[in-house]
Amino acid sequence: MDLRFAEESDLDAVTALINRAFEVERFFKTNERLALADTREYFANGRYLLAEEDGALIACAYVELQGDRCYLGQLSVDPSRQKTGLGRRLSVAAEEFGREMGAHEMVLTVVNLRTELPPFYERLGYTVIGTEPIPEQMARHVNQPCHFVRMSKPLGSR
User: For residue 26, which of 19, 88, 114, 146 sits 20 to 30 Å off, Cα-Cα?
Assistant: First the structure.
């Protein structure tokens, strides 16, 4: 597995991968996870860490430095490669990037309806630190009440 940061030319493939990986959310979402315009907006504010194998994109994660914190989002693994440790390996790489950028904490949010996600992140050292409402633009595309669960992990120093 090779890791690198996305370039603008990768954004179509990144968007497609994220939407395949988040297809599991169709039970409560009425649209795809991301449009290409959304991916471009994230790309302008942070970075996509890509995992490739034989030149094929197999996983990605969004990371954004926010002061002394780093945000981890859109952790996406190709459905055919899920449950192989790729998500764990990519999150560790994202945390290392956060440390290198001077962040002391990694934060993330998961939607409460994805009950399998908090235990996954807890096994990676994250703890629940609270909840928050989902953004209005997302609320328009869900068919049942939901909210975000905020999680955090101290990064320590390099």
Answer: 88
